[in-house]
Specification:
CATH class: Alpha Beta
CATH topology: GMP Synthetase, Chain A, domain 3
Number of domains: 1
Distance between the termini: 48 Å
Strand content: 15-25%
CATH superfamily: K homology (KH) domain
Order of helices and strands: HHEEHHEH
Helix content: 40-55%
Number of strands: 3
Number of helices: 5
CATH architecture: 2-Layer Sandwich
Largest sheet: 3 strands, mixed
Length: 122
């Protein structure tokens, strides 16, 4: 499969999953979940779904447990939303890259707080 096609497939699956999660889960039950990226395997048998949750670690753990528990339901909804030869098995994971980037940014701000320009005047 070409690189462009893989990128497009990842984006289509991400958009469909975003809509499914928004419609099928309440924020009270799941928290404020944002899908950051989806990576579908080359054989289209698995899709890693990376997400972030607004809140603390307890909310992250609650969200990942609920999403993993609801994986068959979400997968069936995905099968109806996107026409694929195979509907991939969904593997939900917390996106650690965003956490790392925020941690590095915080450390850089602590090292050189006055190096960052102020907000531009309006």
């Amino acid at each position: 499969m070409s690189v462009e096609r893989v990128v497009r497939l990842n984006e289509v699956v991400k958009r469909a999953l975003s809509v499914i999660i928004e419609r099928e889960f309440t924020h009270a039950a799941l928290g404020w979940v944002t899908l950051s990226r989806v990576v579908v395997s080359k054989d289209m048998q698995h899709a890693r779904v990376f997400f972030t949750v607004l809140g603390d670690e307890a909310q992250e753990q609650r969200a990942i447990l609920r999403l993993r528990h609801a994986q068959p339901f979400v997968r069936s909804k995905l099968a109806h939303a996107v026409r694929l030869r195979y509907t991939p098995e969904l593997i939900f994971e917390i996106d650690e890259e965003l956490k790392s980037a925020m941690r590095i940014d915080t450390l850089l701000n602590k090292l050189h707080p006055d190096d960052h320009p102020a907000a531009p005047p309006q």
